[in-house]
Amino acid sequence: MQPAKPVSDPPDLWLGGLDNLPSRWGIEPRQNAFGRLWRAFMTARITIASVLVILQAFIYALGNVNNGWCVGVCAVYLCATIVTRLLARPKPAGSTFDAQWVLTVGVDVVTFTALNFLQSSGINYTPLFALPVLLASILGPISLALGTAASVTLLLLTEAWWASLLYLPGDSAARFLQSGLSGSGFFAVALLANQLALRLAREVQLANTSRQVARMQTQVNELVIENLTDGVLVIDAFGIVRSTNPAAQRLLATSSRTRRAPFVLATQAAWQPLVEITHQTFVNQLPQQADVSLNDAGQNTHHLRVRTRLTATHGRAEDALCVVFLEDLREIEARVRVEKMAAMGRMSAAVAHEIRNPLAAISQANALLEEDLKDPAHRQLTAMVSQNTKRLAKIVDDVLNISRVQVPSQELHGTLLMLDAVVARIAGDWTLQTESGNRTHLLLQAPHTCVVFDPEHLRRVMINLLDNALRYASPTGHAIEIATQTPFHGQGRLSIWSDGLPLEKTVQTHLFEPFFTSESRSSGLGLYICRELCERYGALIGYQRTSRHQKDGNEFFVVFKLTGPSSTPAHAALDDLFA
Question: What pLDDT is recorded for position 519?
Answer without folding.
Answer: 59
